[in-house]
Amino acid sequence: MLKACCDCIAAGIREENEVYGSQMNRHNNMWPKSVRGIVFSLPRQLNIGDEINVKSVFLQSPQWISLSLTGDNGLNEADENNVAGLIELHFPQNIIKLKTVVNGISQSIEPENPEFNTPISIVPNYNDPESTITIKIRISQDEDTNNTQMEFEVGLSFIKCIELQHHISRIKYLKLDGDVEKVDNLQFQFA
Q: What pTM, to 2 d.p., does this model score?
């Protein structure tokens, strides 16, 4: 924890690919080589009102990226068979897809606005190597049912609010996958 504070104060200066803190990815020995993408261990259990903002830079001519929140499979690894929420952005088609996975069974969820199932402009210049995108996930509670839910936003657009099928305490990892060069900014805002 103290190292994280010092790194933040020192503008995050550290060795490239250092096995450190909460990032576990395909470039170090902490994470199995079979896991694709960039995986972050959440700094603490999520609660109602928490927000996660991820700003990423694309590889040149990206095809897709996804962002998901998952549980732990019991081996200190992200559980691909239990995904609390996943958002996929498909750039050439400009389509957004949402899904959850419960015990290996995937369920697609329609975005709130039907226009997100048709070509839209997710990112104005996604072929620009300097192009970035921000995805926000907010944990909230339905006022009518008191059920815990996850809200997705891409840029300034609200996409969908989905009811969690997993207990909030089981969500341990944030995973970014696809044509991502790097995470430019990862921000946790705890309520």
A: 0.76
